[in-house]
Amino acid sequence: MTDSTNTPRVIKARRTFFENAVRVLKTAPISAWFGMIVILIYVIAAVFAPWIAPYGEAEILGKAYLPSSAANLLGTDQLGRDLFTRLIYGARNTIGIALITTLMSFFVGGTLGVLAALKRGWFDQGVSRVVDAFLAIPVLIFALMMLAVVGKSIVNLILILALLDATRVFRLSRAVALNAVVMDYVESAKLRGEGMSWIVFKEIVPNILPPLVTEFGLRFCFVFLTIAALSFLGVGVQPPTADWGSMVAENKSLINFPVHTFPYIPAPFYPAGAIALLTVAVNFVVDWVLHRTSGLRDGK
Amino acid sequence: MHPVLRTVLQRLGLGLITLFAVSIIIFSSLQMLPGGYAQNILGQGATPETVANFNHELGLDRPAAIRYVEWISNAVRGDFGNSYSGTTGTIKRSVSAVIAPRLFNTFFLASMAAIVAVPLSLLLGVLAALYRNSWYDRIVNSVTLTTIATPEFFIAYLLVYVFAVKLRWFSPLSTVSINTPFLEHVYRAALPAATMTLVIVAHMMRMTRASIINLLASPYIEMAQLKGLTRWQVIMRHALPNAWAPIATVIAFNLAYLVVGVVVVEVVYVYPGIGQMMVDAVSSRDMPVVQACALIFAATYITLNLLADIVAITTNPRLLHPK
After folding, report:
1. From CA B87, how far away is CA B40, in angstroms rounded?
2. Residue A144's closest chain B neighbor by CA?
3. Any chain B CB within 8 A of the CB of A150?
4. Residue A106 pLDDT
5. Cβ of B217 under 8 Å from any chain A Cβ?
6. How much is the pTM?
7. Do B26 and A145 touch (CB under 8 A)?
8. Is residue B33 within 8 Å of residue A150, measured between CB atoms?
9. In this complex, which of B132, B214, B260 lies closest to A138 when CB atoms are compared?
10. What's residue A1's pLDDT?
11. Which of A85, A142, A243, B216 can bridge A53 by disulfide, Cβ–Cβ 3.0-4.6 Å?
12. Is B278 exposed, middle or buried (0-12, 13-18, 19+ CB in 10 A)?
């Protein structure tokens, strides 16, 4: 006879949060693990940039376009700055700007969406029609136009993209909130005489959070890629701030005019690859979460 | 009135209203500038007289409503006014004259990408849907997911590195002019077109796959299978007539995506198209050019989406045979 039959089985009322997390993570496929590890590395690089980076953000060390060596891990860029250092600072700037923008767009778009679903009537109509008009213009084109009007700066970039992205978030949060506001628990909260903020934050928001969280991952990727594209086009983040999009633009002559630069180093590929790796990683994680949380997306 | 015709007319009307709203947004973006456009361009040292002079020369001192009506009625006729970049000198460049050849180039590039990408991605997408969860489906899925998540300029530079720098099949810069012969133009635009094809094939293929899978899960497909039709009959007689609408939506959505993708790709390859022109105009804050480009991009985007709507309506079997 084995031990297990003799000792009475211990029954726990509830798993702790940590145990649940471990259980869920055990089921994660390799792609999701890969994504999570990559994101973790990026976050560490972004948060501890000044301690990890061997040199200063805009410190000029020596000649331009030096190949990689012990002193310069990935070589130097067009002004003789250490590429590895700028990549690490770039993580902080590029991810930071994209994160702030996405948070702002979710705050504005999410609030408006839930309010529109709750109030309906002229408020819903008014906001929805304005948003419809904004949705008819591609984000990149609109952002380019607005940057031409208000001028190039990081604050303008964040505000413009947050505003444009908020229109997309509004659509989704209004749609999911519309399903939630007709639920009985919202009705009973209203009958109890709860205030507006209670209904929004205690009743509706917790119930529409899962789709919004996955959407946050996708919107972050989109915003991140748009910022990279704008910086690459020279109208986003301005030098000397280290930013992956503008780093590609600064070093692109290495590819377009390869004859003039010798020895060849793949300088533009490092920041471009850094962008691609992060978005792929976030997409893998979002894909897994979508599969877990909804049977709807089964086919995709 | 036939219900199809009525719905189509409704959509057309809606499209016109959207276009009108968008033109107002684009026009009024210029008014939002704190302190006025002239102050911003001429700098802090500008005297009130210079500002007034500048405004008068550009006609900015007249009421906004009148200027909007003038701007939009001229724009409809293809006249976008004069570029600001020549305002201080004596030469005035007409925006339309600058845009026209570049618009042709961009159209050329986008059509090249579309001609290759549309049939290819439909084929790949339908195959992935029919043989879903096979190894083919899985490989295609992860490859396209990676492509979608990658910035366009990264794909562009990879192609340049492989095909222009290493293999030397193409030039890394796609310079064309009005006098470039057709075949030469195709050859020079090959790399940018290939870049855009790669990007939109990924999008289009995934969307086609999703919509076909969605379709195959419908009850009438199951019914057709249960009554013993062959796989081919099920697809041709029952699935395809209902598939036109989602496929049209997918194509139009991605062609509209092409409109945006073209900006980055043109800058990478220094291809003289309207996207690159807009980026240059944004850097020099040449507002008439920026507004003209934005209006053209937005109008194309709206028209393509409208077209998809109309195709979806006119091919819908339920609307075509009203009870």
Report:
1. 15
2. B282
3. yes
4. 93
5. yes
6. 0.82
7. yes
8. yes
9. B260
10. 46
11. A85
12. buried
Q: What is the pLDDT of residue A299?
A: 39
Beta-carbon neighbour count of residue A9 at 10 Å? Answer: 6
Averaged over successive runs of 10 residues, the pLDDT of chain A (300 residues) comes to 57 73 79 88 86 75 69 71 83 90 93 87 87 85 85 87 92 88 86 86 84 86 89 82 82 67 67 87 84 52
Beta bridge partners of A82: A76
Biggest CA pair distance of chain B: 85
Q: Do A283 and B22 touch (CB under 8 A)?
A: no
Contacts of B33 in chain A (CB under 8 A): 149-150
Find the mean pLDDT for residues B135-140. Answer: 85
Nearest CA in chain A to B207: A300
Contact A271, A244 (CB under 8 A): yes
Question: Would you call B268 an interface residue with chain A, using a CB distance cutoff of 8 Å?
Answer: yes
Integer Cα distance of B284 and A79 in angstroms: 25
Q: What is the mean pLDDT of residues B224-234?
A: 86
CA distance A62 to chain B (A): 27
Test B152 with A221 for CB contact under 8 angstroms. Answer: no
Q: Take residue B190 and report the two structure tokens written for it.
A: 């090959």
Mean pLDDT of B174-202: 81
Strand partners, B82: B94
User: Cα–Cα distance between B316 and B320 in angstroms, integer?
Assistant: 6
Chains A and B form CB pairs within 8 A to the count of 155
Q: Which of A9-23, B129-143, B267-281 shows the lowest per-residue confidence on average (mean pLDDT)?
A: A9-23
- Does A263 sit behind a cis peptide bond, omega within 30 degrees of 0 on the bond before it? yes
Question: Which pLDDT belongs to residue A297?
Answer: 41
Segment B16-75, tens digit of pLDDT: 888 888 888 888 877 666 555 666 666 666 677 777 777 776 666 677 778 788 778 877
| Rounded Cα gap, residues A300 and A27, in angstroms | 19
8 Å CB contact between B132 and B211? no
Token pair 């081919």: residue: B232
CA distance B218 to B238: 10
Kindly provide the ipTM of the predicted complex, given to two decimals. 0.81
Q: What is the mean pLDDT of chain B?
A: 80
- The SS3 of residue B94 is strand
End-to-end, the C-alpha distance of chain B in Å comes to 14
**Residue that is written with structure tokens 């009307």 in the block:** B13
Contact A147, A157 (CB under 8 A): yes
Tell me, what's the pLDDT at A120? 82
Q: Burial, A231: exposed, middle or buried (Cβ in 10 Å; 0-12, 13-18, 19+)?
A: buried
**Does the beta-carbon distance from B29 to A145 stay under 8 Å?**
yes
> Alpha helix locations (H) across chain A?
3-6, 17-26, 30-47, 49-52, 83-90, 96-119, 121-135, 139-150, 154-181, 184-192, 196-198, 205-232, 244-250, 253-256, 269-293
Phi, psi (degrees; rounded to nearest 5) at A76: -120, 165
Flag if B165 and A255 touch (Cβ within 8 Å): yes
Question: Cβ–Cβ of B279/A300 closer than 8 Å?
Answer: no
Token pair in block for residue A8: 């009475």
Partners of residue B172 in chain A, C-beta under 8 Å? 255-258
